[in-house]
Amino acid sequence: MFRTLFILIFLLSASACGFQLRGAVKLPADLQPLYLYNAENDELAHQLSVLLRENNTVLAADEQQAASRLKIVSRNRTRRVLSVDSLGRAREYELHYSVLYQLKGQHIDVENVIKLQRVLTFDPNSVLGASSEEQTLYHDMQMDAARLILQQIDALTKKNSHPDATAP
């Protein structure tokens, strides 16, 4: 009984503050079919193609059939030392991952950057584990970047489809 009451109060308070699940990203019909460059050879583009298919986006097999084109122009992975121990050895790194992408279509021509960062605590006694953790963090940032690209495209297309919403 107490558990049910608690769940009910939680759900009511969550809905009262405006919380809602993100839901699917639905690209407008004028952007479909979408051609995604290098979807077979690039891991980020492959993750994007999977997410696009999961969101019922029609992907074009070649560029000539496409109404719009999504291209990963560049990506960059860097790390910098955040802290050192008493012997001057690195103990924490800040990992950076940035992606520059471009979306071109009939009514849209956008170039945006996604920037992500994570902190990696480095244990000099476990070099192999730290290297594996670094790769895992970069992979997670890559997946986050793919989701953020779709969310930004969704927001941009909604903004472009309602130009009066920003007018005073």
What does this structure look like?
This protein starts with a helix and ends in a 7-residue tail after the last helix. A four-stranded mixed β-sheet has the order 1-2-3-4, covered by helices on one side. The relative contact order is 0.14. It is built from three helices and four strands. It is flat, with a radius of gyration of 21 Å. It has one domain (about 20-165): Lipoprotein like domain (Double Stranded RNA Binding Domain). The protein is an alpha+beta fold. Helix 2 crosses helix 3.
The shape, in one word, is flat
Work out the radius of gyration: 21 Å
Helix content: 25-40%
Count of helical segments? Answer: 3
Terminal Cα span: 50 Å
Instruction: Bin the strand percentage.
Output: 25-35%
- Alpha-beta classification: alpha+beta
CATH class term: Alpha Beta
Largest sheet: 4 strands, mixed
Q: H/E series, N to C?
A: HEHEEEH
How many E-type strands? 4
> The CATH topology is what?
Double Stranded RNA Binding Domain
The strands making up the biggest β-sheet line up spatially as 1-2-3-4
CATH superfamily: Lipoprotein like domain
| Overall CATH architecture | 2-Layer Sandwich
What is the averaged pLDDT score?
A: 84
As for the number of domains, it is 1
> pLDDT below 50 for ≥5 consecutive residues: which ranges?
none
